[in-house]
Design goal:
Layout (H helix, E strand, L loop, with lengths): L1 H6 L15 H28 L4 H12 L34 H21 L2 H6 L1 H30 L10 H11 L3 H10 L6 H32 L7 H24 L1 H9 L4 H21 L4 H12 L5 H7 L1 H17 L9 H27 L5 H10 L4 H13 L5 H26 L23 E4 L3 H17 L3 E6 L4 E6 L2 E8 L2 E5 L2 H29 L10 H10 L11 E2 L7 H14 L6 H14 L3 E3 L2 E2 L2 E4 L6 E11 L9 E10 L4 H14 L2 H9 L3 H12 L1
Parallel strand pairs: 6-10, 8-11, 9-11
Antiparallel strand pairs: 1-5, 2-3, 3-4, 4-5, 7-8, 10-11
Length: 728
């Protein structure tokens, strides 16, 4: 259908001179571009993850490939795409941005969503704990990067821009220094989040340093622009007072908004709760991030910093995890657009000039080393060991969108030549491409990056042990967990799934936090002392609820034989699907059970199967059947019992049938003794066959005439003949 629609495009072609596309035309182009971006980003993500590389790198490279400088710039014989799917149309583009305003706008919104959710995911207590370290790391990286970038410009710029004199305050040198200071919070945060290292000491410090680094980078940009303006003025004097005011204003707005947001987080959370259900709360929170991001941009700070501040403020609220869960689909939809568009903005062709290539490689290496050394050295003074310092240094390497924005400002203001802009793009590309695998490599393993200090006795009480409940199987764990989370929700808690694979859950109400960790047979509940009595009461309520549920269920199931009557046609279908007789050779039939209890009957039939070599593990098979029997009796009433279980002791269905003339008490629904005991074992991984086989067995045996005939048989052979005749 997509191909047919695309082929239909020439029908609407029209001749004449080129004109700006209509609004409808621009929107149709946008939706086609978005569809291609999503598919390309997803394929790139999948490919790189198969190569054990971060998916974000695949999204970035997919953008480079389909962008206007490569495949997206190839002309197509369709109206509107003669210059390519992502053609650089001067009638649409704004400035030197190589993508349409609509696409760049969506990219901007995506970056706000990314940083907002990164802020919510940040552990605020750990962020405050490492804020001093983050400040020192950010300052160290900015100073080292700016000085080395500027000095490198003095040395290398004459080779690509001959005939000019370059000094420390030359516009090109200043911008090379400023671009080198930038750090892409988005890329680092995405990789740390995917690696589940965002809340580690190194991850939090890197994130804090990157945010501070962005603020300082914007201040450096303002200072650099002021220096350039002063150099172009008639007096040539630099107004340091004005530059100081710009710096104080930027830091004050960022710091004030962060403190203000954290102090009011509970009131903001309470206000959001009045706007509707969970989905409405999450959407309203995102709307707040968009508004604050826009206000930050109006204050000459980056929008992404405003979004991060809102997320950081809400990270301590009880709705934080709920917002993350509800906005996950929005994140998956929008964030790949951001990274793909960042890739599309890279002009790969510009990098083929040998001079620019050499300059760019040297500039990139120096920029990487300056940032790593400048950030790693201060971290060694902040309780990090060399491994932790290396992780922080590598985390500060990617430049990404921030460096591109700074380079774009310099180019649009005529302060950067195409050569210097090409060098900036190359540095941005290489640091962005190299950082993800480097980050994954340095975070691989469980080694700590923090200096271990001896614990000092401070008189504080030891950490409370978790409230632990141990169960017989995973099904019971699941039932109790669902009931417990339901009880907490009834009491006003917001419950969240932190990691389903690892069985981690959390419940929050205001400042109360309950963490739950589940294993296949165990539930551990971590909570402060004042909540422990409340938790135990909740678990008791869950137990009482399920006990009442079982009582009611028994009452419903305890009915006459009419409940189990099956029409002859349906019985024939069941028997064709599952033949019970085919699974019961004579050596697996006990015509005279000696057992007088259900446990003894199960053991006797297990022995029959074990004697025939049908079991790999007798004890495992016995345990599976008894566990199921203890959960609820398999006495179905009317003299029939079907003890069964799923186990690794068998790799296919095995059965044994026992006949008791005196009857055995199985605790069945009608309290009558059982005469026919059909024991069945299924492989642990078999589900559908498990139910259908038991249904066929019940349909076959639930016949008074058949039961009477089987009870009167004296030998296993006679019983087998009756069953085969019944199966027809």
């Amino acid at each position: 259908m997509a191909v047919a629609a695309f082929l239909a495009c020439p029908v609407f072609a029209s001749g004449g001179e080129a004109a700006a596309p209509s609004l409808t035309g621009r929107m149709s182009t946008l939706v086609i571009q978005l569809g291609l971006i999503w598919f390309a980003a997803r394929l790139g993500n999948m490919l790189f993850e198969k190569l054990r590389l971060p998916g974000v790198l695949g999204e970035l490279c997919a953008g480079i490939l389909i962008g206007p400088y490569l495949l997206g710039g190839l002309g197509l014989p369709f109206h509107g795409f003669e210059q390519g799917l992502f053609a650089l149309n001067p009638l649409v583009l704004v400035g030197d941005t190589p993508v349409s305003p609509e696409l760049y706008g969506l990219c901007t919104v995506a970056s706000i969503i990314l940083l907002f959710l990164v802020g919510i995911e940040t552990d605020l207590h750990m962020f405050m704990r490492y804020s001093v370290a983050g400040t020192l790391v950010g300052l160290g990286g900015v100073v080292a990067s700016f000085v080395t970038g500027d000095l490198l410009g003095i040395w290398l710029l004459p080779s690509v821009m001959p005939g000019q004199t370059f000094g420390f305050l030359h516009p090109a040198c200043i911008f090379l220094g400023v671009m080198s200071t930038a750090t892409s919070v988005s890329i680092t945060a995405r990789i740390l989040s995917e690696s589940r290292k965002l809340d580690s000491p190194e991850g939090v410090t890197t994130l804090a340093a990157a945010v501070i680094d962005d603020v300082l980078g914007i201040i450096m940009l303002a200072i650099g622009t002021a220096l350039v303006a002063a150099g172009h003025s008639d007096t040539g004097r630099i107004n340091w007072a004005e530059i100081g005011i710009i710096a104080v204003k930027a830091i004050g707005i960022w710091l004030g908004a962060t403190v203000f947001g954290i102090l009011l987080s509970r009131r903001v959370s309470s206000g959001l709760k009045h706007l509707g259900g969970e989905t409405e709360i999450a959407v309203a929170a995102l709307g707040l991030a968009l508004v604050v991001g826009g206000l930050f941009e109006e204050a000459h700070l980056a929008m992404i910093i405003g979004a991060y501040v809102v997320g950081l403020a809400l990270s301590r609220a009880d709705i934080s995890h709920m917002i993350r869960e509800k906005l996950h689909s929005v994140y998956a939809l929008m964030v790949p657009i951001f990274f793909a568009v960042m890739g599309m903005m890279v002009n790969v062709k510009l990098l083929l000039d040998p001079k620019i290539l050499t300059f760019g490689l040297i500039y990139t290496v120096v920029a990487v080393l300056a940032k790593m050394v400048g950030c790693a050295l201060p971290s060694l003074l902040c309780s990090f060991n060399p491994l932790g310092a290396l992780r922080i240094g590598v985390g500060m390497v990617p430049r990404g969108e921030v460096a591109l924005i700074i380079a774009g400002i310099g180019k649009t203001q005529g302060l950067l030549s195409d050569e210097v802009f090409g060098v900036a793009v190359m540095m941005t590309l290489l640091t962005t491409v190299l950082s993800p695998p480097l980050l994954v490599a340095v975070y691989r393993g469980s080694a700590s990056g923090v200096v271990r200090r001896k614990q000092k006795a401070d008189g504080r009480a030891a950490e409370l042990k978790p409230i632990r409940y141990t169960f017989a199987n995973a099904e019971m764990v699941s039932l109790v967990l669902d009931g417990f989370l339901g009880e907490l929700r009834n009491e006003g808690y917001f419950t969240h799934t932190l990691n389903r694979e690892e069985g981690l859950y959390q419940a929050r109400r205001d400042d109360k936090v309950i963490n739950i960790a589940c294993s296949p047979t165990q539930i551990d509940i971590h909570a402060p002392g004042e909540l422990r009595a409340e938790i135990k009461s909740n678990v008791m309520e869950v137990a009482a609820h399920y006990e009442q549920f079982l009582t009611d269920l028994r009452a419903v199931l305890h009915d006459d034989r009419a409940q189990f009557e099956i029409a002859p046609a349906d019985l024939e279908v069941l028997q064709k699907r599952e033949s019970v007789a085919a699974h019961l050779p004579t050596d697996r039939i006990a015509a005279h059970l000696r057992a007088t209890t259900k446990e003894a009957a199960i053991a006797e039939l297990i022995d029959v199967l074990d004697a025939q070599g049908a079991l790999r593990d007798r004890e495992g098979a016995s345990r599976a059947v008894l566990d199921r029997e203890h959960a609820m009796s398999t006495g179905l009433g009317h003299g029939i019992a079907t003890p069964h279980g799923r186990t690794d002791a068998v790799d296919h269905v095995v059965c044994a049938l026992g006949v008791s003339r005196s009857g055995i008490d199985f605790g069945g629904m009608d309290n009558r003794p059982v005469n026919l005991v059909l024991l069945t074992l299924f492989p642990a991984t078999q589900n559908g066959r498990y139910v259908s086989f038991l249904a066929a067995a019940l349909a076959t045996l639930n016949d008074p005439a058949l039961m009477s005939e089987l009870v009167q048989c004296e030998t296993p052979g006679a019983i087998h003949d009756v069953l085969m005749r019944t199966a027809g």
